[in-house]
Structure formats: C-alpha cells, structure tokens
Design goal:
The chain contains seven helices and five strands. By secondary structure, the chain is α+β, with helices and mostly antiparallel strands. InterPro entries: RNase_T2-like, RNase_T2-like_sf, RNase_T2_His_AS_1, RNase_T2_His_AS_2.
Length: 181
C-alpha cells in the first residue's frame, strides 16, 4: 500500500513523501496534497521511504526527488540552464525514524570518472546538479554525506538509486494523479 503525506522537513520546509507501508495510516487525500504542493513556493522534494530490518545501522532509506523548476525559482538560486521538467534524484538517504541524522563511517572517496562511467549518461539525465551543472561534485557530495552510510558499494549506491527512480511502481506523479507544471 502506498500513501502520499505532506511532512515538515528540517532543511526543505515541507516535503511530499511517498510511504510504502503494510497497513493503513492517516494521510492527506490526493487533491488536498496537490493543493498544498501547488500553493507552496518552496522547492518540492519527494521522499520515497524504503523500510528495512533493524539489522542495518539505520531504519530506512529515503529516496529524495526534486522538481527542478521549483528548485530554480527558490530565492537566491540561479540555475545554469533551463531545468528539466521531470522529477530528478536528489539522493538516497539512510535515515532513522527519530529524525536524527545518520553519521557515515569512512569509506573510499568517490571517483566518478572511474566508478560511475557506465552510469554517467543516466546519472546526468536523472541525477543532475540543476543549479551549477557540476554533476560530479553533486554526486561526490551525496556519496560522502549519505552513500557511505548505506550498505552499498559506490557503484551499487548510484545504480540502485537509478533503478528506484526508473521503476514505474514508485512513480510519484502517478500516485498524485497529476503532472506538476
């Protein structure tokens, strides 16, 4: 079962989160969620929450997507080019139910030239740095801040993120029954 919720977020103000849960819980209706999103001028980030067994050092993954046109309209943000009109990946974040930040242990630094070469075309399309266009620096930042905490190798972290983004089961637009403008 999947539901869309509007939730406060420490960094983005509000996010629309898609929960994949085994049992019903209170949620906004699709129409009220879209009314809230469309009236909110903050960047829209979408979190797909993937829940895991407590064997790992975190509770679940958030698949955080952003709507680039909203990101580029944020105060003091000037994007390097016209933003794509589709949800793009912001990151795959290991998270705790408490809301505390997961602190990463050290793993090797990311070298996108070597590690991500087979994925580069897809990453540039679905995981771009819409503000500066420096995609590799953005990918390094996401790996250092979130990927190192995951149970994945560098390649797996980015490949899994792309697979989730491209999987029609997790298409946030189809769950919202609309297309943002």
């Amino acid at each position: 079962m999947s539901e869309v919720h509007i939730l406060p977020h420490y960094k983005y103000g509000w996010v629309a989160a898609m929960f994949i849960t085994p049992s019903p819980s209170p949620s906004f209706s699709t129409s009220s969620a879209m009314a809230f999103i469309s009236s909110n001028l903050l960047p829209i980030c979408i979190s797909l929450l993937l829940f895991f067994n407590s064997v790992y050092s975190f509770d679940y993954f958030q698949m955080v997507l952003q709507w680039p046109p909203a990101t580029c309209k944020t105060k003091d943000v000037v994007c390097y080019t016209a933003p794509p009109k589709m949800f793009t990946i912001h990151g795959l974040w290991p998270s705790y139910f408490s809301g505390d930040m997961v602190v990463c242990t050290s793993k090797p630094k990311l070298d996108p030239t070597k590690q991500l070469a087979p994925l580069k075309t897809q990453l540039e399309m679905y995981w771009p740095d819409v503000i500066s266009g420096d995609h590799e620096t953005f990918w390094k930042h996401e790996w250092d801040k979130h990927g190192k905490c995951s149970l994945f190798t560098q390649y797996q972290y980015f490949e899994v993120s792309l697979r989730i983004r491209l999987n029609s089961t997790f298409n946030i637009i189809s769950h919202l029954e609309c297309r943002p403008s």
